[in-house]
Amino acid sequence: MLTIKCSRCKSKLYKYYKVGKGKVIKCHKSRIKKQFGIYRDNGNYKCKCGNIIGSDEDSYIKMNNKAFIYTGTKEG
After folding, report:
1. Residue 57, burial from CB neighbour count under 10 angstroms (0-12, 13-18, 19+)
2. Which letter does DSSP use for residue 19 in this model?
3. Band (75; pLDDT cuts 50, 70, 90)
4. Is 31 helix (H, G, I), strand (E, B) or coil?
5. Which residues contact 60 (CB under 8 A, 6 or more apart)?
6. How many structural domains comprise the chain?
7. Closest by alpha carbon to 40, among 55, 28, 26, 25?
8. Taking the model in full, what pTM does it have?
């Protein structure tokens, strides 16, 4: 389970169940377990500070790799 945080203000965005090795490039919406400070605006997902975290791609969020940090362990 990973905790995804904003790289600008360090606030928690959501808890995510990551499967497999590698970088967090896209987050499947079905694996997001709990949301904190993230909202959707014109097809983009943003933090409360206005930082654009990723874009909506139907069943997943395509992440901006410089916009977030994560803590926790990856499964797989």
Report:
1. exposed
2. B
3. low
4. helix
5. 26, 27, 28, 29
6. 1
7. 55
8. 0.86
Taking Cα atoms as reference points, which of 53, 60, 9, 5 lies closest to residue 32? 60
Which residues lie closer than 8 Å to 35 by C-beta, 6 or more apart?
Answer: 13, 14
Structure tokens given for 67:
């916009």
- Percent helix, strand, coil in the chain, to 5, is 5, 55, 40
pLDDT of residue 76: 56
Residues 6+ apart with CB under 8 A from 44: 52, 53, 54, 55, 56
pLDDT in tens, 14-72: 999 998 888 899 999 999 999 998 999 999 999 999 999 999 999 999 999 999 999 99
Q: Name the residue range of residue 40's domain.
A: 2-72
